[in-house]
Amino acid sequence: MSAEPIVKMVDIEKHFGPVIALSGVSFDVKAGECHCLLGDNGAGKSTFIKTMSGVHKPTAGQILFEGQEMNFNSPRDSMEAGIATVYQDLAMIPLMSVTRNFWMGREPVKRFGMIDFDRANSTTMSEMKKMGINLRSPDQAVGTLSGGERQTVAIARAVYFGAKVLILDEPTSALGVRQTANVLATVDRVRKAGIGVVFITHNVRHAMAVGDRFTVLNRGKTLGTAARGEITPEELQDLMAGGQEMAQLEGSLGGTV
Ligand SMILES: Nc1ncnc2c1ncn2[C@@H]1O[C@H](COP(=O)(O)OP(=O)(O)O)[C@@H](O)[C@H]1O
Ligand SMILES: [Mg+2]
């Protein structure tokens, strides 16, 4: 794991009119690590990663990519730098084949000036296989895959096209146990391939399964960053829930929430 972060966000501030969505949030991700961004609904997680990926411009603060200050004006800018984002509502067309989805919006493979469908197909199959998914055929429709497998198509595509940083916005929140385990295994593979993963979740167990570091957001502010081994799942859960509020709630419900 290299010491220098690939992406470093410094004192990020984001206002939407009178709404302060982010205030003084700093966060970085290094090659080969999975840095989890946790927080309850409305904490500012999506806003934060949209700022990292050029969807939003920060109201104040700096974004450094490999040590250089960046001014992303669009998601395309961040993608060209090597930041890939996989959103929860995946931009995929269910009736279209896995191959078509894999290459969507990208330069097709060409041979003698013609699109080389055979190579597009075999590349898709082999990239999916690397992620632990054996497609029946490259023509298999994306709609026939499970939610976890669809996440994996999006992740495999980002990795194949050279992402240095992969941002996953709640990739496991709509999945069952088994599919979640598959996506977590995929995250682990991607990290081991040297990519920096930003994994957003409000599930402490999912974070603990793959995270190297953990940052908790609460109402647009960071509650700090801890490395694996420095924090227990209980402490992380407590932080996410705003600590005291949770203790009170537990008390009034007479048990563990
Ligand atoms: N485009 C927007 N305009 C106004 N307020 C927004 C916008 N996007 C997000 N917010 C507000 O910012 C806060 C954080 O939202 P969000 O980043 O989606 O949280 P999370 O992803 O952690 O659930 C919320 O109060 C939300 O209403
Ligand atoms: Mg969100």
UniProtKB/TrEMBL annotation:
One of its GO terms (molecular function) is ATP binding. It comes from the Bacteria. Residues 7-244 form the ABC transporter domain. InterPro entries: AAA+_ATPase, ABC_carbohydrate_import_ATPase, ABC_transporter-like_ATP-bd, P-loop_NTPase. Pfam families: ABC_tran. Keywords: ATP-binding, Nucleotide-binding. The keyword Endoplasmic reticulum does not apply. The keyword tRNA processing does not apply. PROSITE patterns: ABC_TRANSPORTER_2. This is ATP-binding cassette domain-containing protein.
